[in-house]
Each structure stands twice: as structure tokens, then as C-alpha cells.
Design brief:
- The chain is mainly alpha-helical.
- It has three helices and two strands, in the order ββααα.
- A hairpin with a 5-residue loop joins β1 and β2 (11-14).
- The termini are far apart.
- It is found in: Cytoplasm, Cytosol; Golgi apparatus membrane; Golgi apparatus, trans-Golgi network.
Length: 96
Amino acid sequence: MSSYQDDNSIPLVDDDPSGLEPDISPDEQEEKARLIAQVLELQNTLDDLSQRVDSVKEENLKLRSENQVLGQYIENLMSASSVFQSTSPKTKKKGT
């Protein structure tokens, strides 16, 4: 038995060391080729999806960070504004 790998590192096992399989029918060879092509396509799709997940994770982290900065900025503006100061519970206690 010999084994070899194609360009995408999928191990394949073959009974014939030459890589030609005379003992299987052309239909079986065609089916095997079709399945290999399908596996390679699925492997590429998985790789693309993995890259997309990584980029979405990075974007998510950036947006969370931006939201934190904006939230702090809004909080600072609200604390500096007299409009929001007059509604806070601390300013209502001035007369006490």
C-alpha cells in the first residue's frame, strides 16, 4: 500500500503504487474524483469561513472598544452638563 498527499494535504491511500487503479471501474474512478473535488471544495469553504469568523471577531472587539470610549465620553458630557446635574439625586439633597 502506498499513500500520498495532494496539494491540500489530504492523505489518500492507494493500493496501486503507480497511482493508477486498474481494478476499479471508470464509474468508480469518476465517483472518487468527484468526491475528492467535493472534499477540496468543502475544505476551501471551511478555510474561507474560518477567516471570516476571525475578521468578524476582530471587528467585534474594535466596536466594543469604540462603544466603551463613546459611553465614557457621553457619561463625562452628562456629568458636566447642568441639565443632567439638576436631575441627579445628589443635587436634590442640597437643601438638607
